[in-house]
Write a structure and sequence with these properties.
heterodimer, A: 190 residues, alpha+beta, Glutaredoxin, 2 domains, four-stranded mixed β-sheet, 6 helices, elongated, B: 142 residues, globular
Chain lengths: 190, 142
């Protein structure tokens, strides 16, 4: 009887021991899985964080570099060209001579008003027979009606003589003369 | 009859003198020999510079290329571009005011060089104008 009771107790104990073990094992597995998924999730979070962090660092670097570039650009002065349009004439003027002056004035006032007010373009009509204009007339080597467009950049001057085009087109083919004059001025302003 | 003939001859002479005064075409030559045409276009109201260019062109040609002009190799034309009868040739040469052009003719082919800007740059230096124009024409005739 005692032996039977001991066997039953032993079986009960073994059963009790085994079943909870299976349950724990499952729970443990789930926990492990959860834990893995958490680890994965953590990895994933860690990756996003590191990417974000890397991106932020890169952005900061770019901003810093851009700031450096901007500050460098601010320090470098970009030279802007200045354009002088001079029309020379004598005391006795013909119709073509008058037409060249009028069309030149019209072109500048129509297409370069802003540049004229800012001093980027300068327009002058010069009477070569007046003594005060002797120096500039000699500089340009003019002896009669002449139209010059001059570009000044970094102290050096580049001249284009448009006298021939003026006499050819200003009176009877105004639009063609305006086109030539605009092209010369616009190219020099670049 | 004799009187009528004299009258007709007088009219023809007057006409030729008048056309010389207008001075459109100053030399007309034998077309089959033609190699080079010098054309100077001007408007009706001319300034000193414009007339000086014509004078220097004439001087260059007749002092240096008289033989070529006489044999019809070179033709010189002075043309008023504002006259309606000259509209076609003026448009062909893009001449709406004082314009100096040289056309080199090789068979059916024509090559034109516009010397207007050059002429206005050099017109006040007669020696340089004549020398450079002479060299240009000589080069084209080679």
């Amino acid at each position: 009887m005692l032996k039977k009771t001991a066997i039953i107790l032993f079986v009960v104990l073994i059963t009790a021991f085994i079943f909870p073990g299976c349950g724990n094992s499952g729970q443990s597995e789930k926990t492990v899985n959860d834990s893995i998924s958490q680890v994965n999730a953590t990895d994933s979070i860690f990756d996003e964080d590191s990417t974000k962090s890397a991106m932020t660092t890169a952005e900061n670097n770019i901003e810093k570099n851009t700031d450096t570039l901007v500050s460098k650009t601010k320090n470098v002065k970009i030279a802007k060209p200045k354009v002088k349009v001079y029309y020379f004439h004598g005391a006795n003027r013909c119709v073509s001579c008058v037409a060249i002056e009028e069309v030149t004035k019209k072109t500048i006032n129509t297409y370069y008003k802003k540049e004229l007010s800012e001093g980027i373009i300068e327009f002058k009509t010069i009477d070569i027979e007046e003594s005060k204009n002797k120096v500039i007339s000699e500089k340009y080597q003019v002896f009669g009606s002449s139209l010059f467009v001059t570009k000044i950049l970094n102290g050096s001057e580049t001249k284009t003589d448009l006298t021939g085009d003026g006499f050819k087109y200003a009176k009877n083919k105004e639009e063609k003369f305006i086109e030539i004059l605009r092209k010369t001025i616009t190219d020099y302003l670049k | 009859m004799k009187k009528a003939l004299i009258f007709i001859l007088s009219l023809m002479l007057t006409g030729s003198l008048f056309s010389q005064t207008i001075g459109d075409t100053i030399v007309s030559n034998n077309a089959k020999n033609l190699k080079l045409t010098v054309l100077y276009f001007h408007i009706t109201n001319r300034c000193n510079t414009c007339t000086t260019i014509e004078t220097l062109v004439r001087k260059t040609i007749f002092e240096n290329f008289k033989t070529e002009v006489d044999s019809g190799i070179i033709n010189v034309s002075i043309i008023n571009c504002e006259l309606p009868e000259n509209k076609v040739i003026s448009e062909k040469y893009d001449a709406y005011g004082a314009t100096l052009a040289i056309t080199f003719i090789n068979g059916a082919k024509e090559k034109t060089e516009d010397l207007s800007n050059w002429a206005f740059q050099k017109v006040h230096k007669e020696d340089i104008f004549i020398s450079e124009l002479k060299n240009k024409i000589t080069e084209l005739l080679k």
